Amino acid sequence: MRAFIYKQLWPSAWDREGLSPTNKIIVCLIIAASILFVIETEPAIREGSSLFFVYAELFFTTVFSIEYVLRVWAAGENEKYRGLIGRLRFMRTRTALLDLIAVLPAYVSFITTDAYILRLFRLLRILRLAKLGRYSASLTRVVTALSQCWRELVISLCFAVLLLLFGSLALYFAERGAQPDDFGSIPRTLWWAIATVSPLSSGPVHPITPVGMIISSFLAILGVGTVALPAGILAGSFKQAFENRTASDP
Fold this sequence. Notes:
mainly alpha; 12 helices; single chain; extended
């Protein structure tokens, strides 16, 4: 029985093309639960069907709880996770923790009435979508590609933050006297700088002093390259992951 459940729940253990019937059902339930979570945020729909959403969440929580328990039990088919110590080792893995987080919101609602905590844990329901990663080889390769270039991405992010910070600081000193309402503080100027180097629109606000216009021009030009840098890093990493996959295919 344990071997059968292991084969049904672990995509890597399924010896046929595609997903097992059980995993196909789980994928459909994850998508359905996520759609209901999004719909539930609309007050007009939630107020008229509150009981339906309660029963639906209870159903999804029960199913995903059973899946979690069965997954922990069936993990013993893998030598690395056999015995009590092995099961505990499995429960500390990223996928097992994600499964646990996916079922926590409903249980938290039974032990607390704090509105802020309940809202926070309800937001965690959307993490159920992350469970889909184990069912897709393509998503797995995307995660692998991201893990291989995360240092470069962090460096490019740090460079972008420094550019925005120093640019905002310079604009603040250049424009605060002429436009105190729009550039009267560094946070306000920082928001304008972010809107300048991103697809966001800063609206009618723009520097009017000569120094401010020069600074904003350099910020806009450098910002284009800063935004494009992570895209180039990701493209190179994805290309490498695709070439590695092609080379490993028979």
